[in-house]
Design brief:
The protein is of the alpha+beta class. The chain has one domain: Muramoyl-pentapeptide Carboxypeptidase, domain 2, CATH 3.30.1380. It is 41% helix and 6% strand. It is built from 9 helices and 6 strands. The strands form 2 sheets. A 4-stranded antiparallel sheet has the order 3-4-6-5. It has a two-stranded antiparallel ribbon with strand order 1-2. The structure holds zinc ion. Zinc ion (ZN) binds next to strand 4.
């Protein structure tokens, strides 16, 4: 009798061990996921963090793309100053998702999940009407915007109209010229993960042929999906600020929260860390650029 019982005891012991192992695995995965969820907002991003990104495993790669088809209720973000100023790491932040290559002009771009889901629905509706929308720029962090700004400030990139910023001696006037189309680092709506540039960075594209069809479709339908054009022509809906950008669209249900938070939390002391930052207060970039948007978008 003793001998015949022994194998069943061994089997019970083995099953118990397997259950223990499975529990350990589940707990350690849950712990890592919880750590990832809090980490991006609990610390300040540094330049070395950003350069580390390319080596990190992308936590969002494993997201089910089918998920993007499901509408979600508006998420409440705990917005902090780093999120407003662009000190973010979309590839490691669970609030962001990667834009799939078919929707974009290049790989490796991110949007806040809710904004991207809304874009996907809008894109599908546009397709039904024979209009194709694709993203050419989405979330940009502080360092990305700093590269854009300083390339212009230092004369490495031409400005609109074929001039170079370095030809303008007065720093305030130099900044004002760049500000016609580019935001200072820390003040770009592209930091928020809610704003995208579509199809072309030339207003002319949207003024004839297929581009005009795209723009007219957006004017008629984008609002239904939560999108609006913050930088319209100067005049009826806004007095100044950046020039008209027919390509720039913003997901209002989330962006309006970011804009309110920006008003509350960001001051000129926070706008620094790039060439020409000293001109921000004199140019009143918060009042005259960040807040000077199409009143329909407020
Ligand atoms: Zn833009």
């Amino acid at each position: 009798m003793r001998n015949s019982k022994k194998p069943s005891w061994n089997r019970a012991l083995l099953i118990a061990l397997l259950i223990l192992l499975a529990l350990l695995l589940i707990f350690s995965r849950g712990y890592r996921a919880a750590r990832r969820a809090v980490m991006p907002q609990s610390r300040t991003t540094t330049e070395s963090d950003i350069s580390e990104l390319s080596k990190q495993t992308d936590v969002n790669d494993t997201r089910q793309q089918a998920d993007l088809q499901k509408p979600t209720e508006t998420m409440l973000y705990n917005i902090d100053r780093d999120m407003l100023l662009g000190f973010i790491e979309p590839a490691r932040d669970t609030g962001f998702v990667k834009i799939i290559p078919e929707h974009a002009s290049r790989e490796g771009m991110y949007m806040r999940e809710e904004a991207y889901k809304a874009f996907v629905r809008m894109r599908e509706a546009a397709m039904m009407d024979g209009v194709e929308l694709w993203i050419i720029s989405a979330t940009r962090n502080f360092n990305h915007q700093k590269r854009i700004w300083e390339n212009k400030w230092e004369g490495r990139q031409q400005l609109f109209g074929g001039i170079y910023a370095t030809d303008i001696a007065d720093p305030v006037e130099r900044a004002r010229e760049i500000l016609r189309f580019s935001a200072m680092p820390g003040t770009s709506r592209h930091h928020w993960g809610t704003d995208i540039d579509l199809n072309s960075l030339q207003n002319a594209y949207f003024e004839s042929g297929q581009g005009k069809k795209v723009y007219n479709w957006l004017l008629k339908n984008a609002a239904e999906y939560g999108f609006c054009q913050p930088y319209t022509t100067h005049g009826k809906n806004r007095q100044g600020g950046y020039e008209e950008e027919k390509w720039h669209w913003s997901y209002m249900p989330v962006a309006s929260g970011f804009l309110s938070a920006f008003k509350e939390m960001v001051s000129y002391d926070d706008i620094k860390g790039f060439s020409g930052w000293e001109t921000a207060a004199e140019l009143e970039v918060i009042e005259d650029y960040v807040l000077e948007i199409n009143s329909d978008c407020l």
